[in-house]
Amino acid sequence: MARKEHFEEHCWKGLYSEEIYRIYEPYKRETELRGRCAVLMIDLYNMCYEGGNKPVSELVDKYPSTCGEYAWNALPHTKALLEAARKAGLPIIYSTKDNRNSDSVINVNATQRKRKGTDERHSYEIHSALAPADKDLMVFKERASCFFGTPLVTYLQKLQIETLIVCGESTSGCVRATVLDSYSYGFHTVIAEQCVFDRNYISHQCNLFDLHHKYADVMDSTEIIAGIAAN
């Protein structure tokens, strides 16, 4: 869908020297959606939106797991992609932390720190603006990747999915781990650029650059929406 000459037209443009871009020149290719698609919404729960649309540095003392403004900036883009996917009838899968047996599991977390005195059930509920529909699937995980210890790969194989479209957080953590496993399982993986985020923007840029050149197609969310509508 996106032509080869636009391969570096993303949030990391200008981050590196021309020498680095020259080194990665052989990775340039056209990006695309292939075959039957599904959308994976990674860890879009209340915890990452805590404190509101403010810089993370202003919130982190009270809300150590928030992504602040980065989460809120991604919200309208993610909502638009989700609505397009629903309209097209694409399978939609969510992930969240598995705390169903939290009283009997000690020191088992994905990437977030547990905070005393918090309502974990509410913290790990999907944000209301992106709430799952009855027909959507949910995977509960205890580690970073949505594939590790979950039936996700079975769901995708049963649905005959070729392309997995990824949204969510965090780019350097659960998104990265999931994309690597998705690639390893043989799925064509597309990352919706405006729909993933991290509390550290430079880490967000670097990880998207790395994933784009090796394991996934990073695509503009509007381009993905257009591709979904065209299929």
* Lateral arrangement of strands in the main beta sheet: 3-2-1-4-5-6
Give the N-terminus to C-terminus distance in angstroms.
12 Å
Helices, by number, come to: 8
Number of strands: 6
Mean residue pLDDT: 92
Helical content class: 25-40%
Low-confidence stretches: 104-117
Describe what you observe in this structure.
The protein has helices at 18-23, 56-59, 68-88, 120-123, 152-158, 171-184, 201-214, 221-230; strands at residues 37-42, 92-97, 137-141, 163-169, 188-197, 217-219. The chain has eight helices and six strands. The protein has a six-stranded parallel beta sheet with strand order 3-2-1-4-5-6, with helices on both faces. By secondary structure, the chain is α/β, with parallel strands linked by helices.
Which characteristics define this entry?
231 residues, alpha/beta
Write the layout of secondary structure elements.
Blueprint: H1 18-23, E1 37-42, H2 56-59, H3 68-88, E2 92-97, H4 120-123, E3 137-141, H5 152-158, E4 163-169, H6 171-184, E5 188-197, H7 201-214, E6 217-219, H8 221-230
Parallel strand pairs: 1-2, 1-4, 2-3, 4-5, 5-6
Helix pairs in contact: 3-8, 6-7
Short structural description:
The chain has 231 residues and is an alpha/beta fold.
